[in-house]
Every structure is written in structure tokens, then in C-alpha cells.
Amino acid sequence: MKKVAFVTGANKGIGFEIVKQLGEKGWTVLLGARHQERGEAAVSELKSQGLDVRFIEIDLSDLESIAKAAETVKESYSGLTLLINNAGMPGSFSSSFTVTKEGDLRNAFEVNFFGTFRLNQHLFPLIKNNEGTIINVSTDMASLNHMQSFEFAPNAFDYNASKTANNAMTVSMALELKDSKAQVFAVTPGFTTTDLNGNAEGGKSKQEAASIIVGYAVDGKRHNGEFLNENGRFPW
């Protein structure tokens, strides 16, 4: 039986490349995206390459959409063993704490934290039962250690705080799995040139970033409760 993975935020960027790379490794991949037309176009492109990819409509800012997507997965793809929470949004990418607006902070948390939290709660029991893996895609800027020691780290409080909260969720989830064969961990691909940062120059390619995440997803090792980058363990 083919392995089944679900990747959110996957109609473009790093998510699309994750789906492609998993598909090339023989997985059946559920491509999650909030826009049906864009999601189905991405699926068609990957299917034309001979990959087994299916579309799941999911908007992480919408409670009903999350619940519906989770039910579809549980009913039609009960063998799911890999969930990659890749979907995210930059918020206003505020330049400091003092200029951050509460509305922007709430918007960033709604998708980057609460949306991911809701989907994880829906699918956590299935992944645990299937002895699978959940990867919460993170960022270097979610690391409090990194932000205190890296002189040029962007002080984007709304985005950074939402991803740091996501890291805290990863730790909490992992604690529940310490005696299980299932696992939850976080991966930061590092600075990558994507739409999320306005395609800023100097970053990794989307393919390179995806390969870091996929590499940990399929390496067969236990990473429960870890925060990883391309070189291994990364400080929280």
C-alpha cells in the first residue's frame, strides 16, 4: 500500500515542491490549498508528471474549511502517516514591536498558529494511531535563541511570535508522543526566496528548502520533539 501524506499551503512555493518531491518518492500526496482553482491547477501539473496527487481544499483561517478537510482525510485517506503543516502567512511583517498593530498580530496568529493548531487537533489521533509523523514547518526567526544572538534577524514581531507559538505547540504535542512510535517535530528550511518574503534575493531555492523538510520526513529516524535545520538540531 502506498504511503499517504498531506501538505498544506501547497499550490505554490515550498509546499508545492514538497508535494512534488514526495510524489517522486512514490507517495500519494494530498495537496492542500485554500483556492480551489489554483490548487487543482497545481494538482494537474503534478499529475501530468506521473505523480499521484489529490486536491484537498483547506483555508486555515476558516474553522469550517479546516473541519471539512480533516473529515475528508479521515474518511477517504485513513492510512495517512505524514502531515506537513506548511501553510503560513507573513502578516504585515512588522519591523518592530512598537509599530506592530494588534490586528496584524491577530491575523498572523490566526493562520500560523490557530489554523495549524485546529488541523493538528483534528488529525493528531489519526497520525498517532498510524504511528506517523507531523512536521510543523517553522522559521529561524521562531527561535528565541537565534533572535537574541543574530544581529541581522528581522524583528518582525507579528510573524515571529506566531511561529514561536507554533514551536511551543510542537513541544507540547511531542510530549504526548514520548511513549508512542508516532512523532512531531519542527523544521526550519532557513532563508528561502518565496512569495512570503516578496521573493527577496539571496535565499535558498524553493526546491532546496523543500528537500530539507522532505529529507527529515523520510529518513526513518526518530526526531520527536526536535527543532531541525539543514545541519541538524537548531536551538529553540
TrEMBL record:
Which keywords, in A-to-Z order, does the entry hold?
Answer: NADP, Oxidoreductase
| Gene3D superfamilies to which the protein is assigned, alphabetical | NAD(P)-binding Rossmann-like Domain
Provide the GO MF annotations for this entry: oxidoreductase activity
Cited InterPro entries: NAD(P)-bd_dom_sf, SDR_fam
- The answer on whether this UniProt entry bears the keyword Oxidoreductase reads yes
Pfam families in the record, alphabetically?
adh_short (PF00106)
Q: Which domain of life is it from?
A: Bacteria
Q: Which family does it belong to?
A: Belongs to the short-chain dehydrogenases/reductases (SDR) family.
Protein name as catalogued: SDR family NAD(P)-dependent oxidoreductase
